[in-house]
Design a protein that fits this description.
about 450 residues; alpha+beta; Rossmann fold; Dna Ligase, domain 1; six-stranded antiparallel β-sheet; four-stranded parallel β-sheet; about 35% helix; globular
């Protein structure tokens, strides 16, 4: 039995109806008053954090640093080689703005590695990367806020009488990373930050949490839409206020779709008049096809032996959907017929969507629906990926009628990576179905905590 199971079972033993009711009353109030909401929806309906052992978190940290090293190497190789860069399907507009940042040291100051985690009896977890969120990783402030809320519940207080545990805080590392790249850019005082995204998004609550956090540390920040930005005399303005740091939550392809390359943020980045996190050039790694680039046998020469081992161990077989021959489990296959014949084992993903949009799970579709999904994947840049098993764990949950039950939930495990070097903080989503995505309405969120067992 995996070591973490003893802690999970002890937690569930404490989850009596009265303990659940008392804990939920506090957790619900904390979420409503603390901006722990996704639109008008509570961020969590589960009453247990995701728990991992010290050994499991150390394994996740090693995985994160090794994979990010490989991604960074792929990034620099793509900048130097247009043919390699073409493997991730940049648009012409993206090619232009990526060129503005060709000399930056670190394109992804903050990333998120969206993974599956399986607990094993030997203590070493099985970790498989599903996506690299390299452009605008959400949930950092959400996760820290949830951890604070859970720590106030009677259920977690009782559990801490038996087990030592610690949350995986992410906001302090965010501030350290933000100030680090700001100093590297040339900033000498504290920055003035523009948090930029569309108006009326359900994630607006997290922007407020970031704004409050920045204020506590003496940093002025404004939550603005792209339409509220202007660029005059070498200065970027947000709602008329001069800013020198952009925390860009809007996705690059959405910005380009609305404005092309003619937008004040793009002009300011081009002129090095503003520091931005994450940079436009992170698009090279944010594309789903970046996983195909790393796992494709044609590109193995780009990586050293340690990186190749990490890729093989942690990145599932991923290919661009196109007519070609390739290797699968050491044997050559004709890719398109292989995809059509193996739908139970495969997932199709659009190259540049988010929130689960357009994802086709082969095992959930009829043959006719799968054929249609394959045809759509050929029309727009898409990747095919080998199915990755997801772990089920038992969680106390609040049901729609307000009652409580202990039910199995699919679990993912998404460490945040800072400074391209170390893991800190983690997003965990739960789902009763096959799609683990809060944006798509397919899940709920809980904090992740390390437990000494």
């Amino acid at each position: 039995m995996p070591a973490i199971n003893s802690a999970i079972n002890a937690y569930l033993d404490l989850a009596t109806p009265q303990m659940l009711a008392d804990s939920w009353a506090i957790l619900e109030q904390e979420m409503r008053s603390g901006h722990l909401m996704f639109g008008d929806r509570l961020l969590s309906t589960a009453l247990r954090p995701q728990m991992v052992t010290v050994q499991e978190w150390e394994a996740a940290s090693r995985m994160s640093s090794r994979l990010v090293s490989a991604f960074d190497k792929a990034y620099h190789a793509m900048l130097a080689n247009p043919a390699l860069r073409a493997q991730v399907w940049l648009t012409p507009e993206e090619e232009i703005i990526v060129g503005y940042e060709a000399g930056v040291r670190m394109p992804v100051p903050i990333g998120r590695l969206d993974c599956s985690l399986m607990h094993n009896e030997d203590g070493e977890p099985t970790l498989r990367l599903l996506e690299y969120n390299a452009e605008s990783p959400a949930a950092i402030a959400y996760e820290d806020g949830l951890a604070e809320a859970y720590l106030r519940t009677p259920l977690l207080h009782a559990f801490q009488q038996r087990y030592a545990l610690r949350p995986l805080w992410a906001l302090p590392a965010t501030l350290q990373t933000l100030l680090g790249i700001y100093r590297e850019w040339g900033g000498r005082e504290l920055p003035t930050v523009a948090i930029v995204d569309w108006e009326g998004l359900p994630t607006q609550h997290e922007f407020i949490l970031f704004q409050e956090f920045f204020t506590r540390h003496g940093i002025r920040s404004l939550i603005v839409t792209p339409d509220a930005m202007s660029y005059e005399g070498g200065v970027l303005y947000a709602d008329g206020v001069a800013v020198d740091f952009v925390y860009k939550r809007i996705l690059t392809h959405e910005l380009l779709a609305r404005y092309g390359v003619e937008h004040p943020i793009i002009w300011a980045v081009r002129d090095r008049a503003v520091c931005m996190m994450n940079r436009f050039s992170c698009k090279l790694l944010h594309k789903k096809a970046s996983l195909a680039l790393l796992s494709d046998e044609r590109n193995a020469h780009l990586f050293n032996r340690e990186e190749q081992a990490a890729i093989e161990r942690h990145i599932p077989w991923t290919r661009r959907v196109e007519e070609r021959m390739t290797l699968f489990e050491g044997a050559e296959v004709d890719l398109l017929p292989f995809i059509q014949a193996n739908q139970e084992r495969l997932v199709l993903k659009p190259n540049d969507e988010y929130g689960g949009k357009g994802v086709a799970l082969g095992w959930d579709l009829s043959p006719a629906q799968w054929q249609q999904a394959v045809e759509e994947a050929l029309r727009q840049p898409s990747v095919v990926q080998l199915r990755v098993p997801l772990g089920y764990e038992e969680f106390p949950v609040v049901l729609p009628d307000g009652s409580f039950a202990v039910q199995p939930r699919l679990v993912d495990f998404d460490p945040f990576i800072f400074d391209a070097a170390y893991a800190g903080g983690c997003l965990t989503r739960l789902s009763a179905g096959g799609l683990l995505n809060v944006t798509a309405g397919g899940g709920t969120t809980v904090p992740t905590m390390v437990v000494a067992v």
